[in-house]
Design goal:
Blueprint (H helix, E strand, L loop, with lengths): L1 H20 L12 E7 L2 E2 L2 E2 L3 E8 L7 E5 L2 E2 L9 E6 L3 E9 L4 E8 L8 E3 L8 E2 L3 E6 L7 E8 L5 E3 L3 E4 L3 E11 L8 E7 L8 E4 L14 E4 L8 E9 L5 E5 L11 E9 L9 E5 L7 E6 L6 E2 L2 E8 L9 E4 L2 E2 L4 E3 L2 E8 L3 E10 L5 E3 L3 E5 L5 E5 L5 E3 L3 E2 L1 E5 L9 E4 L2 E2 L4 E2 L3 E10 L5 E10 L5 E4 L8 E2 L7 E5 L4 E8 L2 E2 L2 E4 L2 E4 L7 E11 L4 E3 L3 E5 L6 E4 L6 E3 L4 E5 L5 E7 L2 E2 L6 E4 L5 E10 L5 E11 L4 H49 L1
Parallel strand pairs: 3-9, 11-17, 25-33, 35-42, 44-52, 54-60
Antiparallel strand pairs: 1-4, 2-3, 4-7, 5-6, 5-8, 8-9, 10-12, 12-15, 13-14, 13-16, 16-17, 18-19, 20-21, 20-22, 22-23, 24-26, 26-30, 27-31, 28-30, 29-30, 31-32, 31-33, 34-37, 36-40, 38-39, 38-41, 41-42, 43-45, 45-49, 46-47, 46-50, 48-49, 50-51, 50-52, 53-55, 55-58, 56-57, 56-59, 59-60
Length: about 700
């Protein structure tokens, strides 16, 4: 019995496999796994500064058995709280890569960093600056070297009671006066702070004031009866310590003595110069300094007078240099008697005292110098006379005005006036060529230049620009041959050419009575945007010249047409066929369009009209080649291939169609029957084989 049972089970399995092989319609639906991931911890994904819990909520029909989870490429074998909820806790510091894979192929990867320790303390470079020392140069601090599990996000700094501020690219440039500690720390991507690095920065740019200087002796004309003693009063303020620097120079020998926080003492007679200034420990020096000299002299002063244009009788400008040689000149005893202008007081240059007198007014001028030194020695110079002419020649031009346009000839007249005129140096140019004043008749642009020079070197140049434009302004339509015609040109921009010798301004570009935008191209004016719509157009241009005279172009009309002729055909069915005897006709939709070429089977058709009909075409394939054109020049080419079939009597035609339908049904039925027979034969063969197998093993 057991053996028979096994045989029956085997036969049942074979039948099941055969039946399952028969085609059947199946419908299935793949469901993509969808889950939500949330994080609980201090920080924001992907950086956390505490342990973190990852919660995974499955959605839809997805269960935990459909999911595989890998943490840092190691398969996670943890437990789910529920069938569709998972909580994973990460306690240790480090970087984690969580990879979730659904059995249908959907996957997702999340990367997080858990940082439980603070960043290392940063290193701070101050460049050439030494911490704790005063400087007057900007201090550049650069923070670097901190390390953190989540890497360093940025560095922050703080001074005094101020808030922490971010350091751009880890750099901090100090430019303002300060004497304070700068606190610097690193901030990781997870939001943790390092220990604070401190650096004492002392920056001071404010210059110190010069202390008050006093002298124990009174000066008499730069001489002292006793050795003078100079002292100062210290006025220390905030910031770095200020020191006094004093420099005493022996002018005859050049010996220099410099002291700090005290003033050198003069010990014997001679010429001395004392210079005092202040400087703080940051290197800032006072803007002002104290200067004084002491001297003795017994020689008579020497006076030297030299003029700039010494050999010129008449000058437009005269500068005279006065030099007085005396080691101990009494400046307040120097008198310069002149009608000129003394530009500056006497200044010592080497062994001379120098000054300058300038004569810059018309007329005759005198100069006399009187000097006296500390010992009472006096000198008087020789009297000098100078003649000054600073006035430019006066040029008068009549008959024209600058930048003026004239519609008739002009008659130019000139007159040059000057007391010391050099007639040989007076020149007249017209358009760059020497010219004698006369009438100017021809149209054109003109530049008149008159140059005049006098004996003192004063030059005057007068230039006048003018135009003679007897022809006026002319406006021409650029597309002359298109006026009054049909136009099919693409991107068509009608325009005008403006011909004028002087500037012209367009006031209106009108198209069908409306103003349109335009643009200049040299002397041509076009509408800015090409015409795109078909229709009748009328354009004109209005302008005004430099004299305010208005001018208008002619009104130009044309028809703009870019639509190609439309060819219509009748007599054919959807398959481009017709029965024998059917009239086939072609025509043009627009009556104004015309045929330029019509060929039927390569035979050209003559005497063309708007509608052309073809009667009694022979059965077979025919080719019709058509070409049409409109008044704007748009061309349409078309090739039509069609067939003319033979006519069958109506009863015969019905019989043929009936037989064709019947034959189609029989053929479909025969194919279905054959398929059934093949399936039945297959099943019979299988049953026979099974019966033989049963009889063989049942004995």
């Amino acid at each position: 019995m057991k053996r028979k049972h096994k045989i029956l089970m085997t036969m049942t399995a074979i039948l099941f496999l055969l039946l399952s092989a028969i085609p059947a319609d199946t419908k299935g639906m793949e469901e993509t796994a969808v889950w939500d991931i949330t994080w609980k911890g201090t920080g924001e994904e992907p950086f956390f500064r505490s342990s973190v819990v990852m919660e995974v909520d499955l959605k839809g029909s997805c269960t935990k058995d459909d999911i595989m989870i890998f943490v840092n490429r190691q398969k996670w074998e943890g437990e789910w709280d529920y069938e569709q909820t998972l909580k994973m806790t990460f306690y240790e510091e480090g970087n984690y890569e969580i990879h979730l894979i659904h059995r249908n192929g959907y996957e997702e990867t999340r990367k997080i960093t858990i940082e439980l320790s603070n960043p290392t303390i940063p290193k701070v470079d101050s460049g050439s600056y030494t911490a704790g020392k005063w400087t007057n140069q900007d201090i550049l601090l650069e923070a670097h070297g901190s390390k953190a599990v989540s890497k360093i996000s940025h560095y922050e700094y703080k001074t005094g009671n101020n808030e922490w501020r971010s350091m751009k690219y880890g750099r901090l440039e100090l430019k303002r006066d300060m004497d304070d500690l700068v606190l610097i720390r690193a901030v990781s991507n997870a939001g943790r702070y390092s220990e604070i690095q401190k650096i004492w920065c002392r920056l001071w740019k404010k210059k110190p004031q010069l202390f008050k200087i006093t002298c124990s002796e009174r000066s008499l004309n730069g001489w002292y009866g006793k050795i003078p003693e100079f002292t100062y009063e210290s006025e220390q303020a905030e910031g770095p310590l200020v020191h006094v620097y004093a420099q005493l120079t022996q002018l005859q020998t050049g010996q220099i003595q410099t002291e700090t926080d005290q003033i050198p003492q003069i010990k014997k007679d001679g010429k001395y110069q004392l210079k005092i200034w202040t400087k703080d420990e940051a290197g800032n020096r006072s803007e002002n300094s104290f200067h004084t000299v002491c001297f003795l002299d017994t020689k008579k002063p020497e006076i030297l007078i030299r003029s700039q244009n010494e050999f010129q009788k008449v000058s437009r400008y005269q500068k005279v240099k006065i030099r007085i040689k005396d080691e101990n000149l009494q400046k307040n005893a120097v008198k310069v008697i002149t009608s000129g202008k003394q530009m500056k007081g006497f200044v010592q240059k080497g062994e001379y005292y120098e000054s300058e007198v300038v004569f810059d007014r018309n007329g005759k001028h005198n100069l006399l110098v009187q000097v006296e030194d500390m010992a009472g020695n006096a000198s008087i110079s020789e009297k000098k006379v100078f003649k000054i002419d600073m006035k430019k020649p006066e040029i008068y031009i009549s008959g024209i005005k600058n930048n003026k346009s004239y519609k008739t000839f002009v008659n130019v007249k000139l007159h040059v006036k000057d007391e010391n005129l050099d007639e040989k140096q007076t020149r007249i140019y017209l358009n760059g060529k020497r010219w004698i004043p006369d009438k100017i008749k021809d149209d054109g642009y003109y530049v008149l230049r008159v140059e005049a020079l006098d004996l003192a070197g004063n030059q005057n140049v007068v230039t006048k620009k003018f135009t003679i434009n007897k022809k006026g302004v002319h406006i021409y339509f650029l597309q002359k041959i298109l006026a009054g015609k049909n136009i099919s040109e693409k991107s068509f921009r009608p325009g005008f050419q403006v011909v004028s010798l002087e500037p012209v301004q367009v006031t209106e570009f009108l198209m069908n009575g409306q103003k349109v935008s335009y643009e200049w191209e040299k002397d041509k004016v076009y509408i800015k945007q090409p015409i795109t719509e078909n229709g009748n157009y009328r354009i004109s241009l209005n302008a005004v010249d430099a004299n305010g005279e208005r001018v208008s172009s002619k009104k130009i009309t044309f028809f703009y047409d870019t639509k190609k002729p439309v060819i219509q055909m009748s007599g054919l069915n959807e398959k481009s066929e017709c029965d024998y005897g059917t009239i086939v006709a072609v025509s043009l939709e627009n009556k104004k369009d015309y045929w330029t070429k019509v060929k039927l089977d390569e035979k050209e058709i003559k005497n063309l009209t708007n509608k052309i009909s073809f009667k009694k075409l022979e059965p077979g394939i025919h080719v019709l080649k058509l070409q049409a054109k409109d008044a704007a020049g748009n061309v349409t080419n078309k090739r039509i291939k069609f067939a003319v079939t033979k006519i069958l009597p109506h009863p015969v035609k019905q019989m043929v169609e009936k037989d064709q339908k019947k034959e189609t049904k029989v053929k479909d039925k025969r194919e279905k029957s054959m398929l059934g027979l093949w399936i039945a034969a297959g099943m019979a063969g299988v049953i026979s084989a099974a019966w033989l197998f049963y009889r063989k093993y049942s004995k």
